[in-house]
Amino acid sequence: SQDSAFVKQEVEELYSNLITAEDDSMFAAINSDGLTPYGTYKPNNFPSWLEDESVTLEVGYVSEPKLEGNKYSFFKISDVYEGDEAFVKASHILFTADDDTEASKATARSEARRVLRELRNGADFADMASQYGTDGTASRGGDLGWFGENSSFVQEFKDAVFAYRGEGLLREVVETEFGFHIIKVDVAKSYTVYKVAQVEKELFSSD
Asked: What is the reported pTM?
């Protein structure tokens, strides 16, 4: 329609202007119909549109305008820097004792170490988590998602995860108040923070 053609032309002009804008946050705040024209994103709160494989996570990158539903959207990466808090993506398999006796704890620890040996020999982590996990993550292959050093996870667990370099299985079972954990770091820890300006333009209701 004539209205949608007008919006498309406006989007193309805004896109060109965002590329050269000196104050990205102000530009997005003035020109966007969206609720978050300028956002700060860490690994634990990445929106799906930043996780797209085609996106280049560098300062100055501007995405091509996309029409989804009733709105056009595009964004510019305004700043990339190292923050104060590290974030990591990890999975675990939790083994719990039947009671508080040392014998029950020893049995749970022994079972966790047995499964850890299987994983080192090539067993699939998600399958093992589904089979042996005793908490809510078992149904999703042990996935804990992204979490930070300041998250509410128990300290012994965080100490073990954030001391690990790179990705892969931790060499030893980790004991916490909840039981015995086999832990796999899925994505190595990162301090990187992104500031992003996003412009959204809605089509007119007549469209």
From this structure: 0.83
